[in-house]
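tool_call: predict_structure(chain=1)
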Amino acid sequence: MSRILIVEDDEDIGAVLQRELSKDGYEVIRAVTGTEGRVMLAQNPDLILMDLMLPGLTGEELLTHIPKETPVIAVSARSSIDDKVSLLTSGCVDYITKPFDIKELKARVVAALRTAEGKKKSNLIKCGEMQIDTDKHEVTIEGKELKLTRTEYAILKMLATGGGRVISKSELLDLIKTETPDCTESSVKVHVSNLRKKIKEVTDTEYVEAVWGIGFKLKGES
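tool_result:
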């Protein structure tokens, strides 16, 4: 179930949005000021419907506090092209003008959530119980986060995108050189060894396999 945050100071509009979106199975939470909306970001909404002319923080000010991966649809009486262009270039994924047709708004909500879900999936690389979030540069195994250095993360990501094939030390170095220019061919083995030790601390599964005389590969790819 997707959670939608409505930031709207008009009680009637807010009530209509909450009722209609709840009918479609969404979990709806509401804020009536921009300041309250900022506090409710802690509830990690999947999408935000936001007025612009709000008490406290304005919609534009609130937008600067919203994580970039959270889709925002501006819902406002301001209808000028300049307003729309400004909001869309500042981070909103869509803009709908008041008064609006509720069917159109619902369709835009569905589209925004679908696009956000697609982006979220494209940022995730899964290998067995390992998950690499390339957007956040985070790695988890069985829900436990691995604390990796920049070089260890770069090596793991490249192995994970290698399609299960063996990657030589020289090729691996070439693939990660833009992310870790300080890494050398002689130090790759040390970094891989440290990576394997950190993985071993959270799971018995041997994800990174050393292929003698050739290089390394990632096992258990899905």
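agent: The first strand starts at residue 3 and ends at 7. Proceeding to next step.
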